[in-house]
UniProtKB/TrEMBL annotation:
It holds the Pfam family Phosphatase. It comes from Planobispora rosea. This is Putative phosphatase.
Length: 262
């Protein structure tokens, strides 16, 4: 498949609503910004926040980092992700991944809380990392816990070296940080050189001081705050649950960026 140019990728992101006028509503975005400002654990993704992150601070950061509407008076209806910010962050992520792959015997851990969307990106990055000689880690496989919002245990399970949360044979959506915290605890001092993840998987890794890059939707501000505080190296803003095939041009662009840096 052909590599899209930057302009072609921008057009594709807008057409598929990965960026541009995204499906996430303004009301949902603002509600999550307020929840993070109130330090709701469900929205912190395993990160501890420094002082000063008020609702207005978070909205200002999200306008800068993700391209949501900056006007606090815009309270309902359409919200946006700036496709150029998505592309810029994708390029920055590729540079970080390439930098790790250039090192001797790199060790990488991948995980996703969005198996119906972002999994395809993680699988592509896992293939690339293996091809380039990286060791992909799989700690705490089959570790189980009682999480919030469901009445039975869930467990960590891997598919082609990408960690996800399993619920009786089905990979499920999660924002929880606990699975990554369990993985880090099992690894002890033998930590990865890089974590590629999203949601609580990324937040917990960044909080632990591991070099981390991640993906986040416009209603998931925690990773952007983590990036602003220096705990997350790069956060790519995008709609995290469009049709998996629609991520294909973004994947090709990201993989090409990594390869160009090797």
């Amino acid at each position: 498949m052909t590599l899209p140019s930057r302009d072609e990728l921008r057009d594709h992101l807008v057409r598929t609503r990965i960026a541009g006028d995204v499906a996430t509503s303004r009301e949902n975005n603002l509600d999550h910004y307020r929840s993070l400002a109130n330090r709701d654990p469900r929205h912190m993704f395993g990160l501890s926040l420094g002082e000063g992150w008020s609702y207005r601070d978070i909205l200002e950061l999200m306008a800068k980092s993700a391209g949501v509407v900056a006007d606090p008076g815009h309270r309902e209806g359409q919200d946006t992700i700036d496709p150029d910010r998505t592309i810029d962050a994708t390029e920055a992520m590729g540079d970080v991944i390439a930098g790790v792959l250039r090192t001797e015997n790199p060790r990488i851990l991948l995980a996703t809380g969005h198996p119906t969307g972002l999994l395809v990106i993680h699988l592509a990055l896992a293939r690339l990392a293996r091809e380039r000689g990286a060791t992909l880690l799989g700690p705490a496989e089959d570790w189980t816990y009682w999480g919030s919002g469901f009445g039975r245990k869930r467990k960590i399970r891997y598919l082609d070296d990408v960690a996800m949360l399993d619920d009786r044979g089905a990979f499920v959506h999660t924002h929880d940080a606990a699975p990554m915290e369990a993985m880090i605890a099992e690894m002890g001092d033998d930590r990865p050189d890089l974590v590629i993840a999203d949601h609580g998987w990324a937040g917990a890794a960044g909080e632990a001081g591991i070099l981390t890059v991640g993906f986040a939707d416009s209603n998931d501000p925690a990773l952007f705050v983590g990036e602003a505080e220096g705990k997350i190296a790069v956060t790519v803003p995008l709609d995290d649950n469009v049709l998996p095939r629609d991520y294909a041009p973004l994947i090709r662009y990201l993989v090409a960026r990594v390869v160009s840096g090797l």
